[in-house]
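Ticket #4471: structure output looks truncated?

Reporter: J.K.
Steps to reproduce: submitted the chain below (114 residues) through the standard prediction queue, then opened the result file.
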Amino acid sequence: MPYRPALLSAALLGLAAGAVLAAEPLQIEIQAQGFVPQEIQVPAGTKVQLIIKNDDALPAEFESYDLSREIVVPAHGQVKLFIGPLDPGRYRFFNDFHQQSEGWVVVAPAAGGR
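Returned output as attached by the reporter:
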C-alpha cells in the first residue's frame, strides 16, 4: 500500500484527540411532536451519530443548548448529526417548534471510572 501522508495525519489526529466513535448510530424518533425514546444512554468520551427521524406530518426542530445543536427535521424526513465526545452528565434537548417536548442524553462514566 502506498504511503499517504494525508491519511496518516488524519488517523494520528483522531488518536490524539482520544475520541472513540460509537460503532452504531443511535436513533430518536419524533412521534406526535415528542421524542421516542425520551432518554438515550451514551458512554463518556465517545462520539456518537444520532439519526433523528420525524414520523409526523409537521416539521420539528431538534435543539439543545447543552449539546450546541440545532437542526430542522422535515416532516416524514430524517437528519443525521454527531454529538460528543461528552463528559458524564445529563444533556437536555427539545423540539423548538413544540417546546414542552424534551428529552435527555445521559452520559455514563467510561469503564474504569473516568
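Triage note (M.O.): checked the attachment and the full C-alpha cell line is present. The chain has one helix and ten strands.
Status: closed, working as intended.
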